[in-house]
Structures are given as C-alpha cells and as structure tokens.
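Human: For the file, kindly provide a plain-text protein record giving the amino acid sequence and the backbone structure tokens, at your earliest convenience.
Assistant:
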Amino acid sequence: MDAGLATILIVDDSPENLAVLSELLQTDYRVRAATSGDKALRVVKTAPKPDLILLDVMMPEMDGYEVFSRLRADSETRDIPVIFVTAMDSTEAEIRGLDVGAVDYIAKPIVPPILRARVHTQLELKQARDWLKNQNDYLEIELARRMSENLVVQDVSIHALAHLAEIRDPETGNHLRRTQGYVRALAEYLSDHPRFADFLTPHAIDLLVKSAPLHDIGKVGIPDHILLKPGKLTPEEWEIMKTHAKLGRDAIEQAERDVDRPLEFLVMAKDIAHYHHERWDGKGYPEGLAGDDIPIAARLMALADVFDALISQRVYKPPMSFEEAYTIIVAGRGTHFDPDVVDAFIIRFDEFQDIAIRYGEAETAALAFAVG
C-alpha cells in the first residue's frame, strides 16, 4: 500500500468536524466521510475500502463503540484499524477506547501535527501488517504446493518400488491398483466398527491405501525359478517363497533407517509386508500370529490379496470366477480371515467386483458375477 493512495474514512455527526478533518488529510490521502454510524457501516463495504477509520465516539442513535463493535464482528471489516476521535478527554474514556481494540485515541480539539503523525504511524503499521500477511499467505501457498509435490513424489516412489516386484511377475498386471481399491473399501466400511474405529481414521485409511502397493516388495528377493514356476512348489521351494514377507519387512526397515524421522506410511507398509500372510487361526506365516495380534492393516491386506489372487490368472492356474472367489473368502471367515473383515467383504462385494473389472486384465473383465 502506497501511503499517498491510502483511503481514510472519517465518521462524525458534525459537518464542521468532517470539514476540518478532511481539509487536514485530503492533501495526502483519499478521504471518505460518513455523518452517522449507520452510514459508516454502509460506506465501509464499498470501494475503495478504507485503510484507516477515524471514528467519533459521541454520535446519536449509534455511538462509536457500537459502530466499532459491528466492524469487528464482520469478517470483511474486522481488520481495518480504527482511531477513536472524541471530545471526551478523560483517562477512563481513553482506556475504554483502547481496551475495546482501537489502535489509538485522539482527543478534541484536534491538533493538526498530532493528527497527521498518528494517522501516518497507523498507516505505516497497517502497511507492515499487510506485508506480513501477504508473506504468510504466500508461504502457506508455497508450503502447500511443496507438500503436494512431495506427496506426488512419494506416491510415484512407492509405485516404482512396488513395480519392482510386479515386473518379476508380469501376469499380475493391475494387481496393485485392485488391492488398493479393495483395502479402501474394507477400511471405509469398518471405520465405524467398534473394533476398528480407533485405528481406521481418515488419515490412517489414506496411509493404508498409500502403503498397500508395497505388500509384496519382498518378492524381488525370490529366485525366478521359484517365483515363476508354472507348477506346484516343492516344500523346500515353498519355504523360500514364504521368506518374501520378511524380505519385504527388512527392505522397508532399511528405508526407515535412511530417513531423518519416522514416516507413518513406512511403519504401516512394514506391517503389511511382514504380516499379510498371517491367518486369523494362527496357521499363517512368517510369525504364526493369531487373532487381534495381527495388525489391522495386515488383516485387511490379507483378504484383499487372497481375493485378487483367486480371480487372477497365474502361471500355475487360470482365474476363478467372482462366485468361486466369494465362496472361498466366506468359507475362510474365522479361520483364514478376521470374521468382521469378511463381513465387510460380504457387504462391499459389489464394490470388489467393480474394482476388479475396472482395473482388470482382459480375462478378469469377463468374470462379472452378482451374488444373490
């Protein structure tokens, strides 16, 4: 704001006082005038918006304190600085004016040099406040932009890492997108459930979906002759295949050590990678955890991963129909999967099918089936 172009609104019920104040200020500022509190409240909403208000205290119908109160109650005018101008020169009157929030208090009769000096000071202060606000607004916008860029980089990095595992097994196709969708569907349904509500906040759900693609990152450590074997694995080969859960955990743990501070999505990704092959009945791997000892994120991922594996073509099997996969998942309620997670799957099964078709391979898209 250029002080030479600053706009000052003078509010006084006396035309003589308005004339005197206007004459003192109009050589340096744009001056507007109002002869009552009601008129002032209308004028202040029209252009040019005042940078400073000189407000008489003693006015009929609506005094200066009431006008000031209404200015402060309105988001459009609350930040305009106000100087009270009044013939009441008692200390109590001055204290009251400053206490309610006026930036200054000038007693009549007006002393021109004092008036000009105080007006100039308050306009300089407003200029400084406006500059700081603009700087803060800019910094907030810039911070939001950089955070958005960081999130995009983070998401791209996650998918790049996840695709390392996917590239090793080219038949998995859109597996990452599908499992993200399944996990979100389960999490959003369970977010109001008493057993899950404390964990599945909107923020946690976003982290869960962001982390889900890293569930099989450990497969990069599995030899091709085992990972891509078209037939059934031998017991020895199966033991090697199962190590991908720990390999994934270890890889993410190493990534955690390389950053200066803990990253929430890596903590969740580590749980998912390590425990998504655990079973509700304790017969899973790698730790044999059972029931609620299995992290919630891993329980949701377990069902999502198995469902997608069932409906997807693999080197060792053709894809199952949605009906067949549904039957197997429901049969695993209370043994393979958390019962409440299976119940969420049953409720959201139509959404599972939609996700599978939307991000499916050609053979999967032909499997649409509506249960019931």
Observations:
- The mean pLDDT is 86.
